[in-house]
């Protein structure tokens, strides 16, 4: 049991040490990246909706 506790403490210390080494992005970069991702998601959703609409109309005409 003691060995597991020591390993856990070691893991937490190493994790904190590695987290301090991380170069975190600044707020502006995160905001710009978020906007770009949201725009791309919207464009992709609109494209898929358009293709779905076209295919549904074509299949309705074919099955009529």
From TrEMBL:
Membrane topology term: Single-pass membrane protein
Family matches, as Pfam families: SecE (PF00584)
Segments traversing the membrane: 29-55
Keyword field contains Transport: yes
Highest taxon in the source lineage: Bacteria
Keywords: Cell membrane, Membrane, Protein transport, Translocation, Transmembrane, Transmembrane helix, Transport
Entry GO terms, CC: plasma membrane
Localisation: Cell membrane; Membrane
GO molecular function: protein transmembrane transporter activity
Record keyword Transmembrane present: yes
A GO biological process held by the record: protein secretion
Main location: membrane
Record-stated family: Belongs to the SecE/SEC61-gamma family.
Function: Essential subunit of the Sec protein translocation channel SecYEG. Clamps together the 2 halves of SecY. May contact the channel plug during translocation.
Assembly information from the UniProt record: Component of the Sec protein translocase complex. Heterotrimer consisting of SecY, SecE and SecG subunits. The heterotrimers can form oligomers, although 1 heterotrimer is thought to be able to translocate proteins. Interacts with the ribosome. Interacts with SecDF, and other proteins may be involved. Interacts with SecA.
Protein's name in the database: Protein translocase subunit SecE
Organism the protein comes from: candidate division WOR-1 bacterium RIFOXYC2_FULL_41_25
């Amino acid at each position: 049991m003691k060995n597991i506790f020591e390993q856990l403490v070691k893991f937490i210390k190493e994790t904190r040490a590695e987290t301090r080494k991380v170069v975190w992005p600044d707020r502006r970069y995160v905001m710009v990246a978020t906007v770009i991702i949201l725009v791309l998601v919207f464009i992709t959703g609109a494209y898929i909706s358009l293709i779905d609409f076209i295919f549904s109309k074509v299949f309705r005409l074919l099955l009529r």
